[in-house]
Amino acid sequence: MKVSIILADDHPAILEGIQAYLGKDDQFNIVDSVYNGLALLQSEAIHRADLILLDLNMPGLDGLKTLDELKNRSLKAKIIIMTNYNSPELIKDCKSKGASGYVVKSGKLELLSGIILQVLAGKPYFPILGEDQNEQGSFSYFDDFLKKHKLTKREVEIIRLVCQNLRTREIAERLYLSEFTIHTHRKNIMRKLEIGDSTVALYDFAIKNKLIMNA
Question: With 80 as the cut, is the pLDDT of residue 181 above it?
């Protein structure tokens, strides 16, 4: 039987990319895709799903709050978090809330099938932070990439949030920084990458360098 999967992510490009990739594999069946936690909880497919791929940054009801709600329900579905944040604190929090896996979106999309099957086989998947990607598919920031483009980890984080179509105010709230600080970071990013003020060029850069997931 096929694995029934629900996708929950507020970025259409991410949803389309994952759906297109998993759709090529006869083992998987995408039974629903939603843009926020509330829609996930209201999905008619939630009680028959084998797996939920859940983003953390979503409007209305975010991933962590959604995890709390899912934990209180008697669901058979395993939950894998998919996020831009490579954070030990978040990983620990997600584990405590019942997640069975944690995937950083800067990783290679072709690893996702194996991670899903590993989790469904009862073997949790969580990255080893601070190490290069190993044969089991751990994820980390790429130091060589940062040095090459003279970017900081904070700037990479902001690039990913910009590529989620978040505005300066929303990014500032998400990162607990001022709008002026975010504006300054964005200005520095554009200057370092020499792409003027083009968000499209920034998005292309992010895809090319695997800062965001692409099919």
Answer: yes
* CB atoms near residue 199 (< 10 Å): 13
Count of positions (residues) in the chain = 215
Terminal-residue alpha carbon distance, the chain: 25
Residue 133's pLDDT is 37
Long-range CB contacts for residues 11-20, cutoff 8 Å, separation at least 24 = 11/55, 11/163, 11/164, 11/165, 13/212, 13/214, 14/55, 14/82, 14/105, 14/212, 14/213, 16/215, 17/109, 17/213, 17/214, 17/215, 18/53, 18/82, 18/109, 18/112, 18/213, 18/215, 20/215
**For the whole model, what pTM was predicted?**
0.61
Alpha-carbon distances, residue 58 vs 11, 66, 141, 163, 165 (angstroms): 9, 10, 23, 14, 12
